[in-house]
Amino acid sequence: MDVTPRYLGGDSFLGRRDPRVLLLVPVLYLVAVARIDDVRMMLGCALLALTYYLSAGIPWREVRANWAFVLTLMTITVGVNSVFTDALQIETTAEAPPLFDMPLTGNPVSVATLSYSGTLLLRFVSMAMMGFPVAFCIAPGDLGITFARLGVSQRLAYGVDLTFRFLPSTAASMQEIIDAQRVRGYDHPRTGNPVRRLKSLKPVVIPLTVNSLIDAEDTSNAMDLRAFGAKHRTWMRELAFGRTDYLLLAGFAALAAALVTYKILGADVVWVP
Amino acid sequence: MIIDVSDASVRYRSTGRQVLHEVGLSVREGDFALVSGPSGCGKSTLLRLLNGLVPHAYRAEVTGRVHVGGKPVAEQSIRQLSTVVGTLLQDPHKQIVGTTVFTELAFGPENLGLPRAEIRERIDEVVARIGIGHLLHRPTAELSGGELQIVAFAGVLVMRPQVVVVDEPLANLDPAASLRLLGELRAFVDGGGAAVVVEHRVEEMLEFGPTQVLYLEDGRARYTGGVGGFLREAPVAHVKLPFEALVARAAELPRPADLPATPDEGGPARLEYDHATLGYGTRTVLREVGLSLRAHERVAILGPNGAGKSTLLRAAVRLLDPSAGQVRVDGEPIGERSVLSLATTFGYVFQNPGQALFSATVEAELAFGPRNLGWPPEKIAEVSREALDTMLLLQEPDILQRPPHTLSYGQQRRLTVALALAMRPKTLILDEPTAGQDLHTTTTFMERVLAALGSVYFITHDVDLALTSADRIVIVDGGRIVADASPAELAHQERVWAGSGLRETSLLRAIRDRLPERGPIPHPFHLARTPLHRKEGLNPP
Amino acid sequence: MSTDSALPRTPMWEISSRVVVFAAVGAALYAVLGLISFTIPGTQNVDVRPAFALVPFFGMRFGPIAGFFTGLVGNIVIDQIKGYGALTYWNWSLANALTGLLAGILFAVIASRIQKEGLRLVAVGVIAWVATFLAFLSTITDMWVQGLTLEAWAAVAFGPLLLSNTLVALILVPALDAVWEPISKRIGR
Ligand SMILES: Nc1ncnc2c1ncn2[C@@H]1O[C@H](COP(=O)(O)OP(=O)(O)OP(=O)(O)O)[C@@H](O)[C@H]1O
Ligand SMILES: Nc1ncnc2c1ncn2[C@@H]1O[C@H](COP(=O)(O)OP(=O)(O)OP(=O)(O)O)[C@@H](O)[C@H]1O
Ligand SMILES: [Mg+2]
Ligand SMILES: [Mg+2]
Q1: What residue spans define the domains of chain A?
Q2: Number of neighbouring beta carbons within 10 Å of residue B60
Q3: Of A120, A188, B20, B256, which one's alpha carbon is 20 to 30 angstroms from that of A57?
């Protein structure tokens, strides 16, 4: 699997935003939709999320695979948790008569159940939508400065940049190591026994880790030798909030505040037609 | 005086071993100091002493006078030193931290907290000076070995150091790239800087006129002074001297045994490429390769960084399959051979020795391959001892119980060969087996390998090694094979050495001047003793 | 980075360039190796992720901060590469991070002085397991995030994960540590 970060939404509306916005907005959205029960309310939020996502201009064919994966996975989770088993705490406030019992599990399914699982699905999918721009619309080199400007320690912030520097090379040396072991007759085990399988991964996991660590010693030396480690460093990339950025943040902050109060006032219940 | 070191001794606390004894070195503006010596003699430690890693990063005791930029190193932090001493490590992959060349160059000045305008100005200046403008916005992950090394050097220059210290810069570079790097280094010195370079490849260095040489031997200065004296005094078995120097010292040269000649005419074909096209995904590296390597041949593969040398030989063990054409092993299409059966035909030793080591002990490490072949324990024990013996590792104290990674770099290299030999291969494939090692280690290493198996294919950037230890040289460049002949023949084709990232060495010229177009190549020492007129046709007796 | 060569190790909470580099390396390793995972046959949701061993290992060897970073950034990158957005399962990323943090602290206070090889390896395994257990209790937030019932959380989320990570912690973490110990001695930092 390709691990090098992809930068897709470069010059879209979101692509032009200050990267901090792309990081903060999903957090606000998270606060907003957490624990929402009413499917109509959730639908509203989901539409907002969709608009936000579309404004990122991420080419569909690039992320088709990701979406296919997310959607199936989330549908299954929600299905299993709500419709097939009663894994979810559904407020009793809107007691609805069971429509039918689920075959196999015999779990009673009511309109409330369906409505609530709808809410859940929408919540997860919309959260994924809010997450995508973080991955695809922030230029690889910009993450470090973004965190630094959000108050993270400058050095740790640089660590984020460094992580993305190491990703491709780590993936490459993993391939090298797998090759090196294959010429020694190493092969993936056919066994189902998890312990055996874990053991059988040692020839890959251990050399990759050890070599990366040995190299890291040199890398940290090289960084010291180029004066890394002061409390403050210059970042070539300048970040500045524009008016649009403020508006966007303010909008989502307001949404979060509104929905939180709405929930606190307890006005939010599972919707049953 | 930028660097002023005298009677400096270093003892690492972790091992308690003293690795430098009363060493001295003084470097002024315009000086270009060469530091050489067998591996393990303390060269890197000396550089760590200059850039402050010792004692600031490594726990070590330092005695003696170590002044850099006029102040004792101990009183300056690594940060402060970083603007006086710039350091270039051996492997650029470890030194480079930027995702793009620009961010890489900006890294140092950013850490110094310089204003953006100045950083930009410094970068432009350096980029213009060493002409890497075309790389500026490329991702560092996509650069070739040579490009990486130059970029790493640029990243050091933007710090505006007074002196740069360089640790074995040429180890993984093809000769042309080495030339370029040393040229830049020389230019830096001429521009009012200074340099201290640790390097085994003395001959390449000499072209750039080092002003002084420090030769270390187990931590002691064996020679300090000018180049002329060094060429007269350097131990011939340990330093690869230019051929002229050998001739001048012909009288004192030892009489080593020549390589054993390979039996018959190389025997049947072992590895055949039949219009094979090799590459990764959509990227084609080698196109329509036709090549047949025999069962009893010593083949050296030369070529520039990124030419596809490793790719070519990886196909021999099915690490990649040809996208077109065919690869045959012992006459059968390789597709019909299992990985295991290939593993017993070819022993493959990768570029980076530490790479595949994962066991807690050498014994377990050696057992891994044979066990995959399903061999019984007693046989495994036997082949293990045998392999260690061939690679001269058996006499190491309780070697079998040592953790593999604690062996020295050179020992690890020999161990990885032993790992391959333990599977009883018919042919050994080595990817740059001697990169960054001193002459003595290299020669003994190759002797052992060639003694172990008559059939060895190896990739190298060391032209002289190819000339002296192979009986056939294949040159890969531009996606195809550009030359394939015996060393003697190839030596006489001057144009070959002009391209393909290669350079003529003094030995190469000597061979051309003194030997006929065919026949074996004697050991350089013997060659140095044979007078010029021996060459047929020059002046008949 | 201690400027006095006599000092044994850098203090636990200092963010030296060494910590930063190792944190980044850890995150990258976790992200890359984290893509390798397999399901224990017979169970549909017990997903073993061998690379998880790296999180407590980095915590113990390179300090709580490196461990925290490895777990957090590594897991977020995995989630991202796999496709469900970086933040969707933020509380699980947090649990990963806490594992590294706790392992780092526990190791520093309990095991860092242990000399005997065998004993240390046992300690390493146990600490890794304890850290994992405590840290992943925090995923009880699923009750709030996903609206799961306690039973469901225990049965669907926490239980399976504890099972698989117990295996990893007890098998791979000591193995890693056993190989790294002599090397770290030799590197001499
Ligand atoms: N960090 C360390 N701790 C303890 N011993 C060390 C350390 N680094 C190097 N040594 C030892 O000090 C000696 C000199 O090592 P050094 O790396 O300086 O040699 P070198 O001349 O650079 O060798 P090479 O040519 O192989 O790079 C060796 O015996 C080595 O094992
Ligand atoms: N796993 C890989 N995936 C994609 N491209 C690769 C891979 N390995 C090598 N390449 C590319 O294929 C080309 C040939 O690589 P190869 O390693 O064979 O060159 P080489 O001759 O061995 O170079 P060097 O002398 O530096 O080792 C290079 O451009 C390299 O970038
Ligand atoms: Mg060295
Ligand atoms: Mg190669």
Answers
A1: 19-139+240-264, 145-225
A2: 23
A3: A120
Residue with tokens 């010792």: B54
CB contact under 8 A, C25 and A67: no
Residue keyed to tokens 């690594």 = B78
B31-50 mean pLDDT: 92
For A141-155, how does the pLDDT look when each residue is reduced to its tens digit (9 = 90+)? 888 899 999 988 888
Structural domains of chain C, with CATH = 3-187 (1.10.1760.20)
B523-535 burial: b if 16+ Cβ within 10 Å, else e: bbbebbeeeeeee
- Say yes or no: CB of residue B500 within 6 Å of ligand 2: no
Q: What mean pLDDT is predicted for residues A121-126?
A: 90
Q: What is the 8-class DSSP label of residue B100? A: B
**Does position B191 have pLDDT exceeding 70, yes or no?**
yes
| Preceding amide of B55 cis, omega within 30 | yes
The CA distances from residue C108 to C13, C111, C113, in Å, are 11, 6, 8
Q: In what order do the strands lie in the sheet with B60-68?
A: B18-27, B3-12, B60-68, B71-72
As beta bridge partners, residue B26 has B4
User: Which atom of ligand 2 is nearest to B303's Cα?
Assistant: 21
**Ligand 1: nearest atom to the Cα of B46:** 18
| Average pLDDT estimate for B162-184 | 88
Q: What is the ipTM of this complex?
A: 0.90
B332/B415 Cα distance (integer angstroms): 31
Can you tell me whether residue B316 is helix, strand or coil? helix
**Residue B58 Cα, gap to closest chain C Cα (Å):** 5
Q: Which residue has the tokens 């040809």?
A: B322
Kindly tell me the burial class for residue C143, based on how many C-beta atoms sit within 10 Å of its own C-beta (0-12, 13-18, 19 or more): middle
Residue A187, both tokens: 């092969």
- Nearest Cα residue to atom 13 of ligand 2: B306
Nearest CB to A226; choose among B57, B107, B119? B107
How far is the CA of B491 from the CAs of A159, B459, B472, B474, B512, in angstroms? 51, 18, 11, 12, 6
Q: In Å, how far are A71, A92, A107, B26, C162 from A87, measured between CA atoms?
A: 20, 14, 10, 76, 19
CA B449 vs. chain centroid, Å, equals: 17
| Count of CB atoms situated within 10 Å of the CB of A6 | 13
B57 and chain C in contact, CB less than 8 A: yes
Q: How far apart are CA B79 and CA B52, in angstroms?
A: 9
pLDDT tens across A221-244, in order? 999 999 998 878 899 988 899 999
| Structure tokens that stand for B246 in this block | 């050998």
- Mapped onto helix, strand or coil, the DSSP state of residue B4 is strand
Please give the model's pTM, rounded to 2 decimal places: 0.90
Dist. CA A123–CA A125, nearest whole Å: 6
The helix-helix angle for B116-130 and B145-157 (nearest 10°) equals: 130
Q: What is the dihedral of CA B478, B481, B486, B490, to 10 degrees?
A: -40
Residues A215, B29: Cα–Cα separation, whole Å: 33
- The one-letter amino acid code at B41 reads C
Q: Is B311 in the pocket of ligand 2 (CB under 6 A)?
A: yes
Please tell me the least confidently modeled range out of A247-261, B355-369, C140-154: C140-154
Per-residue exposure over B77-107, b if at least 16 CB sit within 10 Å of its own CB, e if not: ebbebbbbbbbbbbbbbbbbbbbbbbbbbbb
